[in-house]
Specification:
The protein folds into six domains: 40 residues, no CATH class; 406 residues, 3-Layer(aba) Sandwich (Rossmann fold), CATH 3.40.50; 86 residues, Immunoglobulin-like (Sandwich), CATH 2.60.40.10; 66 residues, Immunoglobulins (Immunoglobulin-like), CATH 2.60.40; 89 residues, Immunoglobulin-like; 76 residues, Sandwich (Immunoglobulin-like). The chain contains ten helices and 53 strands. Strand 24 and strand 25 form a beta hairpin. Helix 7 runs parallel beside helix 9 and helix 8 crosses helix 9. It is globular. The chain starts with a helix and ends with a strand.
């Protein structure tokens, strides 16, 4: 927009009915409301309009979360190795519908936790859980950055949020697990996100690639090509954000994960992560890992945030190659590796600098002997391009690797972006990259020695251009991914064991040993290490144990893990001054750790060798509780948390109900939560004067379920309750339960008196067909009906007030008469 004044004047003259509002974006963007086809044609001829885009498309969540996996992207191994790195002091924004701020997995960590204007979204809650769930509900509720703060943003506005407000509230990562339709162009939203990233260079934006991987783009250079260039939204075309596709646990890109390239042939998505049900959860995991990378950087460099371009370079450089070798348009730069990314930061294997036109920056690295792979990634936040430009890159940097000892040079990997399916499937080649603002060089098994990284400003019309470089030498030869410290397996269950192997193709012997035993048991005598996984049916036992992988030259021990049945916490009683929790015994457990949920998260409450915990009134404000067994000094898996007062158990009583509310035999069922501390149980029936008499007494109490008969109930209404007496002298009562009792040959009518128009309930001691007649006191028949069953209704609509006789004649047996009053 060249002139705001001239444009506004032109709009008032040419389109007075259109409402104009300005959006604070680079270049001057306006939102026009009330535009029709005639208006659009005129707008395109306006001398002050350079580009018209569609704004108010309806965003949709990519896919609800059905399962999660923190092993594939090495998040769980990262938690095990660096337990203190959990997102403390970091804040993430989840942009879509509101997540549930009251979810206990976010306890004490929601920023500006107020009642959301919209209904909370299960999808948004799942995304927030994957990013920063605290695991308070259950171990499966633990996210990547499980102690980070969370805030919510609304995806009804597709333009970027107010960056100043985000950064002032501490947000350093924003997750976008939503999309629109397939769009392939550089639009106003694309431009806005690129500008937003350069204006707020420490803020990381992570987008899901979409779930249209099997669809065809209707527009753009790749229109009509099946299964490519199908990212869901033009904002995902932005250069300075991350788009994330989805894989299964084997690293295979799932069929519905949206593919690249971007509209101009750039590599999209840049990363993939686990998300077998879609790219939403893949993006959420990468958002969580981004927080951990930022936290690791802050801990290393005095509390400042890293440039978002560095976070991007580190994530792409540490990613594990999957799919076609090097880069491709399905998996980008590979499978996100949380452990590798954090290690890159902790070992300071990165550089940051800037370049101008024709300038060259040289960085020296020394490659150790025996390194599996040298990988280097250059990334920079490029300035925003003009709308609808055919190629988005503005500032073009070049990366080259040079080995002085041999004069060898290596160029980045580059893909063919020619719009033909065969061309897009070609393997990457080494050559200069003049399209992407990310460049990557890899060398398998590099020779040890000194190498130089050259970063040159090939074309920098809007410099200087800051950039970041990350590098690594390849992963260790063998690493266990599952089991880890704290892993727990269920007995007699198929369990997937996983590991990383960077060595040559070879087999190994997999063995198992319970802790305390001296003998190793063979699980698999010849396991191909390159597979990275196998399935093991665990023994039917409760123990601590270890695995080991034995090769001809080495053996690799796992961490000690536990095998035990999952624990479930139950409520014995929930009385006003005291509650009792209990759980099944775990064989081999020496004690149990009870946890309570505080204002910030679960905290250890008490340890006990028993399977029962009595909570005093001072502990009951915790409300939520969980328990874990301790086996061989190792903590087993924690049970799901329960809200103790919402488990259907009151003060001992779980349920007290009659078998039938209307009956000729009174029988009441009682279930209690525990017999612990109970001396006796009494069934009581209310007398005519309102007091209660004892019908039956049980003591001592050994069972949890009882059937109480009343051999001599009163005709009509009977009220019952249970009295529970403790060994400490306390007395508790159940709720009162009512039973209508009718002897054979007896008629009960209620309510009596009955309000005219209300149904009159008639109870007989028969279940066959009955003929019902209503007479007034002069013997006139007022109403009659035929019914079947123990309890029947007679309609009193239109019956005048007064005294009447009800006569019931069963199929067999004597006729029964009862006097009633109609009001």
């Amino acid at each position: 927009m060249q002139s705001a004044t001239e444009f506004n004047a032109w709009m008032r003259q040419e389109m007075p009915s259109v409402r104009v509002s300005r959006y604070a974006a680079p270049g001057g963007a306006y939102t026009l409301t009330g535009v029709n086809a005639r208006h659009l044609a005129k707008l395109l001829l306006c001398p002050w309009v350079t580009f018209v885009d569609v704004r108010s498309r309806l965003a949709h969540e990519e896919r609800p979360l059905n399962n999660s996996d923190l092993i594939t992207n090495t998040i769980a191994p990262l938690h095990a190795r660096f337990p203190g790195l959990a997102g403390q002091g970091m804040t993430v924004s989840v942009k879509e519908r509101p997540f549930d701020p009251a979810d206990i997995d976010f306890r004490g960590r929601v920023v500006a936790a107020e009642a959301p204007a919209q209904a909370v979204s299960a999808h948004a809650t799942a995304m927030a859980t994957l990013i920063a769930g605290g695991g308070n509900s259950a171990p499966s509720g633990k996210g990547a950055a499980w102690q980070a703060r969370l805030s919510s943003a609304d995806f009804r506005e597709l333009m970027p949020d107010d960056g100043a407000r985000l950064t002032q509230s501490g947000v350093s990562v924003q997750n976008h697990s939503y999309g629109v339709t397939i769009e392939n162009y550089y639009g106003l939203e694309t431009r806005a996100y690129d500008a937003h990233a350069t204006q707020y260079p420490q803020l990381v934006h992570v987008f899901s690639s979409g779930n249209d991987g099997d669809k065809t783009s209707p527009s753009g250079p790749y229109a009509g090509l099946a299964g490519v260039a199908n990212l869901t939204g033009q904002f995902k075309m932005s250069k300075n954000t991350l788009s994330v596709g989805a894989t299964d646990s084997r690293g295979n890109v799932v069929p519905l994960s949206s593919r690249g390239p971007a509209y101009d042939g750039r590599v999209k998505p840049e990363l993939v992560a686990y998300g077998a049900d879609g790219s939403s959860d893949a993006a959420a995991l990468v958002s969580g890992v981004s927080l951990l990378v930022q936290q690791a950087y802050k801990e290393q460099l005095g509390g400042i945030l890293p440039p978002a371009a560095l976070v991007k370079a580190v994530l792409l450089n540490s990613a594990n190659d999957t799919g076609r070798p090097a880069i491709d348009f399905e998996s980008g730069y590979g499978q996100a590796d949380a452990m590798g990314a954090v290690q890159t930061i902790r070992e300071r294997r990165f550089f940051t600098s800037s370049a101008t036109q024709n300038s060259a920056q040289v960085f020296t690295i020394t490659v150790p002997a025996g390194s599996p792979e040298l990988k280097i990634t250059l990334a920079w936040h490029d300035v925003a391009a003009a709308p609808d430009v055919s190629q988005a890159l503005v500032n073009d940097l070049d990366l080259e690797l040079f080995r002085p000892a041999t004069k060898q040079r290596w160029k980045p990997w580059v893909l063919s972006n020619y719009p033909h399916l065969d061309s897009l499937a070609l393997p990457a080649r080494r050559r200069p990259d003049h399209l992407n603002n990310v460049e990557q060089i890899t060398i398998a098994a590099p020779a040890a020695g000194v190498y130089e990284l050259h970063v040159r400003g090939f074309s920098v019309p809007q410099g200087p251009q800051t950039f970041s470089v990350a590098y690594e030498f390849g992963e260790t030869v063998f690493a266990w991914l599952n089991p880890l410290v704290g892993s727990t397996f269920a007995p007699s269950a198929a369990q997937e064991l996983r590991w990383h192997w960077a060595g040559a193709v070879t087999t190994a012997r997999l063995e198992y040993q319970p802790v305390g035993s001296t003998a190793w048991q063979v699980i698999n005598p010849a396991l191909e290490l390159k597979t990275g996984f196998t399935t093991w049916t665990t023994p039917n036992t409760a123990t601590t144990a270890q695995l080991r992988m034995v090769t001809p030259t080495d053996l690799y021990l796992s961490e000690i893990f536990t095998i035990h049945a999952p624990l479930s916490l139950r409520v014995g009683y929930a009385c006003p001054e005291e509650a009792l929790l209990h759980w099944p015994a775990v064989a081999g457990a020496t004690e149990y750790q009870l946890y309570g949920l505080s204002t910030t998260g679960l905290q250890p409450l008490q340890r006990t060798p028993d399977t029962v915990a009595v909570l005093s009134v001072t502990e009951l404000p915790f409300r939520y509780f969980a328990v874990a067994p301790v086996l061989g000094g190792k903590m087993g898996e924690r049970s799901p948390s329960i809200e103790y007062s919402q488990q259907g158990t009151g003060c001992y009583v779980r349920s007290f109900i009659p078998r039938q509310a209307v009956t000729d035999t009174v029988l009441l069922d009682l279930e209690i939560g525990t017999a612990y501390g109970l001396a006796s149980i009494d069934l009581e029936r209310q007398t005519l004067d309102g007091s209660y008499e004892t019908i039956q007494t049980i003591g001592p109490v050994k069972d949890l379920q009882f059937a109480f008969p009343d051999p001599a109930p009163n005709s009509g209404l009977n009220n019952y309750r249970v009295r529970l007496s403790t060994t400490g002298g306390q007395i508790f009562y159940s709720e009162i339960e009512a039973v209508q009792y009718a002897r054979t040959g007896e008629l009960l009518a209620y309510p009596n008196p009955v309000q005219a128009g209300e149904p009159l309930q008639l109870i007989t001691g028969t279940t066959g067909s009955v003929h019902i007649q209503l007479y007034d006191l002069l013997g006139r028949l007022v109403r009659e009906a035929t019914a079947t069953g123990t309890i029947n209704s007679l309609d009193t609509s239109g019956v005048q007030s007064g005294t009447y006789l009800v006569r019931v004649t069963p199929e067999s047996g004597p006729r029964i008469t009862q006097r009633i009053v109609v009001l």
